[in-house]
Amino acid sequence: MKANVNGSAGNNKSTSGKGFAVTPEMLKNGDVLCGLVVRFIKNRNKENMFSLLSCLRDSNLFVPATVTTDAKNVDLSGSIDNPVMFPAKSTVTITPQYYKAKDGFIYMPVYSRMENARQENLKGASLVNMPYENCLELLASSENCTRLVLDPHLYNVVLDEDLIRISKKLPSRLKRE
Fold first, then answer.
1. DSSP code for 144
2. Which of 33, 147, 155, 158 is the most buried (most CB within 10 A)?
3. What is the 3-state secondary structure (H, E, C) of 49-101?
């Protein structure tokens, strides 16, 4: 199912307006978020930005990272179609990739859809699917990185400290199924 530029996944409901709610199932593959990214790129106004940020806070993102574990006999060569499962009592360390841009800032790349990440050369990194809040925790644990870049090289939406702060304050539109 392909998202249209209104950010809906196959229906005609607009994602703008206070009454719109999304379900976890609607957000699962990232099409709604990606549609909102496209809508924002085409028209960078406040309404589109707030719709994007509100959806982002409820979404899972794909993060290129190095994954290590202290578990014994775990094959870390999993793939998207055959994910790695870790023993419950193991410690797993996720170290995201970072990009240093020409502007001097260091960015943590995140992707709205798996397909968007597959187009990149991830230099041996794994793709870790995690909630936006966990991405922010990884970002906070970094000494030098304070910005996310959503769908780099495709849409390149930069989330600086101000936009991240705003995203945390926006109300959730998530409706439990």
1. S
2. 33
3. HHHHHHHHHCCEEEEEEEEEECCCCCCCCCCCCCCCCCCCCCCEEEEECCEEC
